[in-house]
Each structure stands twice: as structure tokens, then as C-alpha cells.
Design a protein that fits this description.
single chain, alpha+beta, 6-stranded antiparallel β-sheet, 20 helices
């Protein structure tokens, strides 16, 4: 039916005295709770027939064909008692939720026994209620590294979709949507039963079609012609009995070559708070303030302080959880440099599968370190101490090029998580949850036993299914992912003190942009976020670590600092970038992509030392220039009249030019 009156949406607060609100409102008029706009994808041709502005089953408002808005988001959706076989793949692929939607529920229609499958976590822009663009629509405007990154993600999705007979999902151009860097499918399509099922040759056919849509910019040359290299990979797929590992390695090399040509600057900071209801803090994190280089000091050689971030949330109570979390952080700090040396010593680029295996082995060592402490103290069952872990490591592999030079940083970001501490990627226009919790909900959904919305109603839905130290390492399966940093953004790691009840998703648009734009420092932004967590959740410790990743040129920002909610910031405070330029230039400019020739690196030390003089001189004059600019701006803002007099004395407009005699007298 079509609604004639203005459509309304209900507040999710069960205690709200008047939950009805007009569509478009951001907060509930009665209780000021943020309104939840949950856009859903209605599957099937029958759902596509309902016109916009229709209200289906007195609940779902049709925004556009197949995009429905739940107007009562606090009410559980209708779910069948038995899970239909056709939708089991959505459940089994729950851990792929970055790229694949999930089952929300069903909407019964007027016809007998007819209902529409509704999917959540779909590629719909929450601001506009419209689908994100397709990959083909976006190829022309994307950077070369992003184009290849999309191809890489499609290759990564091929195997899990092939195992479930769903590769046709990648052959529908309108089904492959993009939100920034990520590939995001609208729905899953089953492969039609036939004599010949889709194989890698079919993917190669579509691959060549997509690559043909890319035009190499005139006058630009990216590692030869990267489009031709993409097409060559597609041709390899078309060969019968093609070697998948060879395709995987070639595409990975191309991706890292393109990524490594961009600059990358990293800056990290962390903070923690016990919370208003806890007397002690069981969280641990890295880097702490003590780990960070102080203004005016040089960074420690080979330090991981800006490349490594961690959050651990201890379980096991006082003198248990906090011991386990600290033990995990300290062990990883000591062990990771050795792992990185092993990777650097490899003669060629280490593939993500290899790096992931080595990192998984290291995590099991950390697990067994904590487990042995439990055994030594006679801790058993629920008395065993343990900890969650979420870790981000920016791996800077050197990338060899055909001309013999090397790019110093492959821009790879490895994420490891065990438990329910989370990682988010926050860019200018979106926030993406990168990790999936190791809890009862995830286990039951992935095993096809229950729907996500159904299991979330259980009291034990958030119970952990694994944590470091609680069992032997052979039973621990760390979740490890590899991403490419190819845009400005924040990698945020946090414990559930902040992430519970969706407060990252509710707050990022207000709290992240000032950090991204250098209007406030990372430290001040973290303080504001922790204040928010204490106010809105408050039931647990909260730890947050942020790695700010910058691809665009570093800006010098002269400003009167903004104030975030729940935060007092000193007026006139310099941005992180400004402080870095003045006091810590080496930390501010990390991993500039200057090609390094192997023969040059083996030259004598005297020549190398001489080459370092000019950058040092340039840095010195840059500091003088920046300092002078800041001083002049400060003088102009604090004393405009005095600045005007100074300007008139320096550049008099009406006075005659001085004679040589007067110049000599003045001197």
C-alpha cells in the first residue's frame, strides 16, 4: 500500500514515552536517543515491483526498488522456525561480512505463504538510502591502486564462493558494489545446476571484460602499463588447468608495486580508562604514552611505535585478566621484531598466506605463555586468566621493481583478532568494522544453527568462544586479514567498553573528522571518545588505540583548536602535524616512497653520510620557516594593530627611497 501521510520511524529506546518520529530526524524528539535507520535489501523480482513510498506489512517503507527501510527497528524481524536451505550460505559466510550481506528476516506478503527475504549489512549509503555505485561505474574515476585492489578482493572471494556454489554472484555487474576501497555484494546468486559448473576460466573472461573498461591516463606510466598486466593475469586464468598460486602471486606483486609508489605517514596513540563502575583496569594497549617518542627526541631505530597497535581486554578478574593482557602485549612487543627480520630476509615478497601463517604461530606462542602461567598457578576452568587481542601491524616490505630499484613500503596492514575487541577503518565518509567477534553469536550463525537477530536475544550471546591463554595453542585459531592502506583514514582498535551497543557506529562521524583533519590531536580525540564510552556504556574498562594513516601530503594547520563533545581543548593548540614538523620531523614523514637501488645501498658509508647532509639542512630551514610562519600568524592574531605598524615599518608605502648616504648612516 502507498502511504498518504508523512511516514514515521520509531525510536529504539524501549522506555521512550513517545517513540514515533518523522522520517529524516536524527534524534528522537521525546528522549533524544539517536534514531536507527536500517536500510535493507529486499530479494527477488516480486519485491522489486513495489513502488517507492509504499509501506509493506505496516512496517517496511520502500525507499527505492528493493531498498526498504525498517520503520520499527527496535522490534525483532519475523524469522522462520527452521532455516531454509537456500539461505544457509549467508549464515556460513558470516565472517565475510565486510563483503557479503547477512539475513535480517522475512516480510510476509498478503498472498498466502509468500514472503520476501530481507538482507542487512548491504551496500546502501546510510545518508542517502541509495545503493553505492557498481565497480564498473567507478573504475574510470578510481586510482590505479584502488582498481587493482578491487580485482584482488574479487580473487579473494572466489574460493569461498566456489566452495558453496555461488560464483555467479561475481558475474553480475550490478551486484558488485564499492564503498571506497572495498568490494561489497548486494546479494548471493547460486550457480545454476548444469553439466559444466563455473570455473577459473569463467572468472578470467569477466576479468578481461572489466580490465578493458580501464583507460591508462595519457602521459602517465604506472609500473609499465598496469592495465596490460591485469589483462595478462586474466589471460592466465583462461588457460585450462591454470595455476591459481601463480595468479595470486602476480596480482599481489602488481598491487604492492602500485601501493608502494604512494607516500605513507603513520602516527599512533592510545588511551585507557577503568570506567565509572570498575575499581581496576584489566585492559592493556600499545603504544602507551611512555612508548611514544617525546618532542625533541629522535625516534628509536627500527622502533614499531607507529607501525604497531594493540588492544587486549583481560578476562579472569583482578590479578588475572590484567596480568594476561599485559603479558600478551609485552610478549608481542619483544617477539615481533624478530618476525619482521625473518620476513625482511626473504629474497622475494612474502605472500599474505605465508605472513599470516607465521603470525598465527607467534600468536599461539603468546597463548601458551599465558596458559603456562595458568598451569603454574593451578588455575582451571573459569578461573583461568586470559585476554582478547586485536592487533594492527603495518608491514613495510621492500618491493623490487623491474629496473632494479626497490620501493621501501608495501603499504600492507595485517590485522589479528582473538575474542571480541574490534578494529574499525574510518575514512572521510564511512566507518567499516573490519573484525568479527569470537563469540557465541558468531559461532552459532557460522554453523548455520541460528539467525543473527535471533541469537542476539539470548543473554549469553556475547560469551567468548576463544581468548588467549584459556586453552592450549593448538585449539586457538586467530583471525588474520591483510589490507592495503591506499587512502587517508584511521585504524581504530578498541575494547568492548566503547564498541558495545554500537557506539563506534553512532559516534564516528562526530569524533573522527577532527582527528583526520588535524583539528585536534589524536590524544585529545581519544580522551573525548573514552568520555563518551563512560557516559553511554560505563559498565567496563575502555581502551582505544588509533593509527592515523595519511597518503595525501601532510598539511601545516594553524588554527584555534575545535572542541569535541565531552572534551576541553586549549585554544591555539597546534595539530599533530604541526608538532611533528617542529619537533619530530622524522616521525612525521614515514616511509616516503623513494626508489632504492640495490647497488647504491652497498656503496661506502662516507658517500651515504654525505648524502644525508642536504636533507638535514633542508629540514633545518623548513623548521625555521614553519616557526617563523607560526610566530607571524600568532603576532597578527594577538596584536593586529601592532602587526600593522610592523608591516608599515617594513614596507613603507609613501616614503621616498633612501639615498645611499642615509643607508650608509643607518648601517
Amino acid at each position: 500500500m502507498t502511504s498518504s501521510s508523512p511516514q514515521q520511524i520509531d525510536c529504539v529506546n524501549p522506555a521512550c514515552p513517545n517513540p514515533a518520529n518523522d522520517l529524516g530526524q536524527k534524534y528522537c524528539a521525546a528522549c533524544q536517543t539517536p534514531l536507527t535507520y536500517r536500510y535493507l535489501w529486499a530479494v527477488g523480482s516480486q519485491a522489486a515491483q513495489f513502488p517507492p513510498e509504499s509501506l509493506i506489512a505496516d512496517r517496511y517503507y520502500v525507499v527505492s526498488p528493493q531498498i526498504w527501510l525498517d520503520t520499527t527497528p527496535g522490534k525483532p524481524p519475523a524469522l522462520p522456525q527452521e532455516i531454509p536451505q537456500a539461505i544457509l550460505p549467508y549464515l556460513k559466510l558470516y565472517r565475510q561480512r565486510l563483503h557479503i550481506p547477512q539475513v535480517y528476516g522475512f516480510c510476509p506478503l498478503n498472498e498466502e505463504d509468500t514472503e520476501v527475504l530481507l538482507l542487512e549489512n548491504v551496500p546502501v549509503n546510510p545518508k542517502t538510502g541509495q545503493l553505492y555505485p557498481t565497480m564498473l561505474e567507478s573504475l574510470a574515476s578510481a586510482t590505479p591502486v584502488r582498481q587493482v585492489y578491487w580485482f584482488w578482493q574479487i580473487l579473494q572471494l572466489w574460493k569461498p564462493l566456489l566452495e558453496l556454489g555461488l560464483t555467479s554472484s561475481l558475474f553480475q555487474p550490478k551486484n558488485i558494489r564499492v564503498q571506497g576501497w572495498r568490494i561489497w555484494l548486494s546479494e548471493l546468486y547460486g550457480d545454476q545446476s548444469s553439466v559444466t559448473k563455473p570455473d577459473l576460466q569463467d572468472l578470467g573472461y569477466h576479468w578481461l571484460t572489466w580490465a578493458g573498461k580501464i583507460s591508462l591516463p595519457e602521459g602517465q606510466n604506472f609500473t609499465g602499463n598496469y592495465v596490460d598486466r591485469l589483462k595478462e593475469i586474466g589471460k592466465l586464468m583462461r588457460v585450462p588447468s591454470a595455476e591459481v598460486n601463480l595468479i595470486y602471486a602476480q596480482l599481489n606483486r602488481l598491487l604492492l608495486e602500485l601501493a608502494g609508489q604512494q607516500p605513507l605517514r603513520l602516527r599512533s596513540a592510545g588511551a585507557t580508562d577503568s570506567g565509572p563502575e570498575r575499581s581496576h583496569n584489566e585492559d592493556a594497549y600499545y603504544p602507551t604514552q611512555a612508548d611514544l617518542p617525546q618532542p625533541g627526541t629522535k625516534p628509536v631505530p627500527n622502533s614499531l611505535v607507529h607501525n604497531l597497535v594493540m588492544v587486549c581486554d583481560g578476562v579472569g578478574g583482578h590479578e588475572g585478566g590484567e596480568v594476561a593482557s599485559q603479558l600478551a602485549v609485552n610478549t608481542l612487543k619483544l617477539a615481533l621484531p624478530n618476525l619482521l627480520k625473518e620476513i625482511a630476509a626473504q629474497p622475494d615478497i612474502s605472500l599474505p598466506t605465508l605472513v599470516s601463517e607465521e603470525m598465527a604461530a607467534l600468536i599461539r606462542v603468546v597463548n601458551n605463555t599465558i596458559a603456562s602461567q595458568n598451569d603454574a598457578q593451578g588455575r582451571a576452568s573459569r578461573q583461568r586468566m586470559g585476554t582478547t587481542l586485536v592487533m594492527g601491524l603495518q608491514l613495510a616490505q621492500q618491493v623490487p621493481r623491474a629496473d632494479g630499484s626497490e620501493l621501501p613500503n608495501s603499504h600492507e596492514l595485517y590485522l589479528v583478532n582473538v575474542g571480541d575487541s574490534r578494529a574499525y577503518w574510518i575514512a572521510e565518509n564511512y566507518c567499516q568494522q573490519l573484525t568479527v567477534d569470537d563469540d557465541l553469536t558468531t559461532r552459532e550463525v557460522c554453523m548455520g544453527r541460528s539467525f543473527y537477530r535471533e541469537i542476539k536475544q539470548r543473554r549469553d550471546a556475547g560469551a567468548l568462544t576463544q581468548a588467549l591463554g584459556t586453552k592450549e595453542g593448538n585449539f586457538i585459531k586467530p583471525n588474520i586479514q591483510r589490507f592495503i592502506i591506499e587512502e587517508d583514514g584511521l585504524l581504530m582498535l578498541c575494547s568492548d567498553g566503547l564498541s558495545d551497543n554500537g557506539w563506534v557506529e553512532k559516534s564516528w562521524a562526530e569524533y573522527a573528522p577532527p582527528i583526520l583533519e588535524d583539528r585536534v590531536s589524536i590524544e585529545d580525540g581519544l580522551k573525548a571518545w573514552i568520555d563518551l564510552a563512560n557516559e553511554k556504556n560505563g559498565h567496563d574498562n575502555t581502551s582505544i588505540v588509533v593509527m592515523r594513516c595519511r597518503i595525501s601530503p601532510e598539511k601545516l594547520v594553524l588554527f584555534e583548536a575545535n572542541k569535541l563533545p565531552n572534551q576541553e581543548v586549549l585554544d591555539g593548540e597546534m595539530s599533530d602535524a604541526s608538532k611533528a614538523l617542529l619537533y619530530d620531523t622524522e616521525a612525521a614523514v614515514v616511509n616516503e616512497p623513494q626508489p632504492v637501488d640495490k647497488a647504491d645501498r652497498q656503496g661506502d658509508n662516507n658517500a651515504n653520510n654525505a648524502n644525508k647532509i642536504w636533507p638535514a639542512i633542508a629540514t633545518f630551514f623548513l623548521i625555521l620557516l614553519v616557526g617563523g610562519a607560526i610566530a607571524l600568524v600568532g603576532f597578527w592574531q594577538l596584536n593586529p594593530e601592532g602587526f600593522k605598524q610592523f608591516q608599515e615599518q617594513l614596507f613603507p608605502s609613501d616614503s621616498p627611497e633612501p639615498s645611499p648616504e642615509s643607508e650608509e648612516s643607518a648601517s
